[in-house]
Amino acid sequence: CATVVSFKSNCKRNVRGVPLAGHVGFDSMPDQLVNKSVNRGFCFNILCVGETGLGKSTLMDTLFNTKFEGEPTQHNQPGVTLKSYTYELQESNVRLKLTVVNTVGFGDQINKEDSYKSIVEFIDAQFEAYLQEELKIKRTLHSYHDTRIHACLYFIAPTGHSLKSLDLVTMKKLDSKVNIIPIIAKSDAISKSELAKFKIKITSELVSNGVQIYQFPTDDESVAEINSTMNSHLPFAVVGSTEEVKIGNKMVKARQYPWGTVQVENENHCDFVKLREMLIRVNMEDLREQTHTRHYELYRRCKLEEMGFKDTDPDSKPFSLQETYEAKRNEFMGELQKKEEEMRQMFVQRVKEKEAELKEAEKELHEKFDRLKKLHQDEKKKLEEKKKSLDDEVNIFKQKKTAAELLLNQAQQAGGSTTLKRDKERKK
Amino acid sequence: VLDLAAVPDTVVSPAVYGEKTGGPVLDFSYVGIDAILEQMRRKAMKQGFELNIMVVGQSGLGKSTLMNTLFKSKVSRKSVLATAQEKIPKTVEIKSISHDIEEKGVRMKLTVIDTPGFGDQINNENCWQPIMKFINDQYEAYLQEEININRKKRIPDSRVHCCIYFIPPTGHCLRPLDVEFMRRLSKVVNIVPVIAKADTLTLEERDFFKQKIREELRANGIDVYPQKEFDEDAEDRMINEKIREMIPFAVVGSDQEYQVNGRRLLGRKTKWGTIEVENIAHCEFAYLRDLLIRTHMQNIKDITSSIHYEMYRVRRLNENNTTVAHANGVPEHHLTAHEM
């Protein structure tokens, strides 16, 4: 079949369009491309940001129809950490390596000023890892396990009033790094009328604060309509549940209350179906592409400019990039080593000083001991002398006593014992 | 603080179609992950594809005609530039021309690179050099763009994906020029050798010729497309082995249609019969077309980008390290040799 084509872009590109006289067969290219991707498998990475207890894990379970691992976290985390789990899912012939990253402890601290930092660091770390791989000399980009975050689901607490300042600050810090899809968590806590007002308030706050959330693409006609409709429903009000309840003759995922049952997949009850449609069934590829062509490129550009590269030096570029990157890293390592050396020197110095001090003290103690010992000896000597003199006195006294007794006996024998007695009595 | 717990062995299978207790079969368990295939297809249709084919061979071997036959339109340079009298250039020139073609909504930018003057001189020494240089220049251009800080969303791909080498139908064996060229170029680009104007060989002569060629390629260590060392898995190998047993394809080109048995077919009319180009009993054009376009086009491009280009890039980036090493006094024998 002959195809006559007219290309408006031809004039720009100096390329001509030619009609084909028969079936050539390159219309199989999209299939060839898809087959290659199917063989390779896909990967998709979702980051869930939100306070503890907003149902992040449950929502993931509900979205992907499975029970992912993990216990509900405690509320006493000292800081925000990110836990990531990777799963291999399969549906018909499509293998998906899904990574779900959860923010643990987000919003639990008393001082939340630094909460967003670990999240930004994590996202940057994934970009950095990819950049490193891309800059390697021998690289394997096609088999690289891409860990860059493709979608960030931001869970907004269902207060019904407005965004928290933590939400605004965090989203503002993340909007140039990742595709943000804000969702209202546990939205069965809000009534329909409150919900509409809540959504309007959130959207206006995001706009007035200049937060760029992900817009579903409307440039492709086949999905433009549905995407633009969905854009107007953001943020999605979701409810998650993996428990099933019998409604009529069907088992549906739902949350059962005494006053009624909230059906997860009922579009009148919540926007879960919209979220699943947008996130997975319609725009998964676009989310991956935006991450690579927009967010990653921005990161790469900033990082390289930071290191002092410019595009105006065409001759030395291919090498400078790799080489200077290495050089800068070596420089940094060198500085690190220098600092380490300095610290070690200081430590050695301190140890020496302390040792000297201790030696000094030891010396003093020895001297004191010697002094005391001498004192003690002197005392002892004195005491011995005193004892000797006392002994001498005792001896003299004894001698005197025996001499006196002797005289007494002699006197008695001579006669006049009574007078002596009387004398003695008188003396007493 | 980052805590990674990868569980690669867990294969969680969410899609269990219709295995729920009672009730009609609905898409409860259907997540919709496989919709990504459709998304990819949409994206590919929107972006379109690029293909750059180079044709190399002496003049008069039917290169232009074969291109026109492959793409069922006047894509070769000669058809476009209506200079019937074209002199054979004194040196090998590289001339490329691009076309936008479209089939069933799939758009492709096809670039045909011609190499007039190849093998036409008396002294053909180093006639591969301009071709080698051209191929490397395309790699260089891509590398430069890739290395830019501000780089384009889609780097324009002018890299030669496939080089069709036309072997004259002597029926005996490869000529030294053929061996030299293929030996050197097979290291940097996918080479698809074809026996040109195969309607001058009988089937026996053809088979003998092909066998001879395959032996010579093997003996010289020339790995043509599909290269043995790039087979990805057993399935790949099986398919590619079948192809390797058939190359080089003996082709006949034509852009003229004739009436054969009540049908209009592309062919060459001679006094002794009409050779039907797309009839595999007559020649192997259809195999070539299927390989290049219908089944292995994506693979050809992949090998170019992930193997040939990467090798060029490694050489280039190491080159600088060696020049730096030179400045630092590294001895000569530590440098790697890049032969042209």
TrEMBL record, chain A:
State the UniProt keywords alphabetically: Coiled coil, GTP-binding, Nucleotide-binding
Domain Septin-type G positions? 40-306
Q: Which domain of life is it from?
A: Eukaryota
Coiled-coil intervals: 322-400
Q: Name one GO molecular function term.
A: GTP binding
Family, per the entry? Belongs to the TRAFAC class TrmE-Era-EngA-EngB-Septin-like GTPase superfamily. Septin GTPase family.
Q: Which PANTHER family match?
A: SEPTIN
Q: What is this protein called?
A: Septin
TrEMBL record, chain B:
Principal location: cytoplasm
Keyword set for this entry?
A: Cell cycle, Cell division, Cytoplasm, Cytoskeleton, GTP-binding, Nucleotide-binding
Q: Which InterPro entries match?
A: G_SEPTIN_dom, P-loop_NTPase, Septin
Ranges where the Septin-type G domain occurs: 47-319
What CDD domains does the database record attribute to this sequence?
CDC_Septin
Q: What GO annotations for molecular function exist for this entry?
A: GTP binding
Q: Where does the protein end up?
A: Cytoplasm, Cytoskeleton
One GO BP annotation is: cell division
A Pfam family assignment: Septin
Q: Which is a Gene Ontology cellular component entry for this protein?
A: cytoskeleton
Similarity comment text for this entry: Belongs to the TRAFAC class TrmE-Era-EngA-EngB-Septin-like GTPase superfamily. Septin GTPase family.
What's this protein's name?
A: Septin 9a
Instruction: Write down the species.
Output: Kryptolebias marmoratus
What lineage does UniProt assign to this protein's organism?
Answer: Eukaryota, Metazoa, Chordata, Craniata, Vertebrata
